[in-house]
Design brief:
α1 packs across α2 and α1 crosses α4 (61-84). The protein has a 4-stranded mixed beta sheet with strand order 4-3-5-6, covered by helices on one side. It has a two-stranded antiparallel sheet with strand order 1-2. It starts with a helix and ends with a strand. With 160 residues, it is of the alpha/beta class. The protein has 5 helices and 6 strands. It has helices at 5-17, 20-27, 31-45, 61-84, 101-118, and strands spanning 50-53, 56-59, 93-99, 122-128, 142-145, 155-158.
Length: 160
């Protein structure tokens, strides 16, 4: 037995929408594509996943079991995509980041260390100062400062 991930993805969309039409709309594919994929999945598994009634689809006990497994597979697929996405387009170049010393030490030390390790082609230069540098004049690429705007978190600015 061989189950296609795309068939499982369509199955989850049908289970979530409660109809082939709803799944077709959420996936932005033709109604017939969803129907064919559902038929292929039921054939591969040799079981009915939905009962077709005049009121719509009713998920079977087998379908309910498959939802649990398919959701786990979906989570694993999303995690795999996130872990490798963009690896071939590694960040590189010079980046000047200005921020006050207390913020660098207390707030961002771990984050900056992790960023440098994950992006070895980036030459990160820290300018530890409370002076306001002009991003529009390219005095820095990223600036972080404490503000006195109520309870707002620190504001991050960057040059576009």
């Amino acid at each position: 037995m061989s189950v296609d991930w795309n068939d499982l993805r369509v199955f989850l969309a049908v289970a979530r929408a409660g109809s082939i039409r709803g799944a077709s709309e959420s996936l932005k594919v033709a109604h017939s594509t969803v129907s064919h994929r559902m038929d292929a999945l039921e054939l591969a598994l040799k079981t009915r996943l939905f009962d077709r009634t005049p009121d719509g689809l009713l998920i079977t006990p087998s379908g309910e079991e498959l939802v649990v497994s398919a959701q786990k597979i979906e989570e694993t697929m999303h995690a795999a995509e996130r872990s490798v996405a963009g690896r071939d387009s590694a960040l590189s170049g010079d980046v000047r980041f200005t921020l006050p010393l207390p913020m660098a030490v207390c707030v961002l030390t771990d984050d900056l260390t992790r960023f440098v390790k994950q992006n070895p082609l980036v030459n990160l230069t820290l300018e530890l100062t409370e002076d306001l540098l002009d991003l529009s004049k390219r005095e820095a690429d990223i600036a972080m400062r404490f503000t006195s705007q109520g309870n707002s978190p620190p504001q991050l600015s960057r040059r576009a």
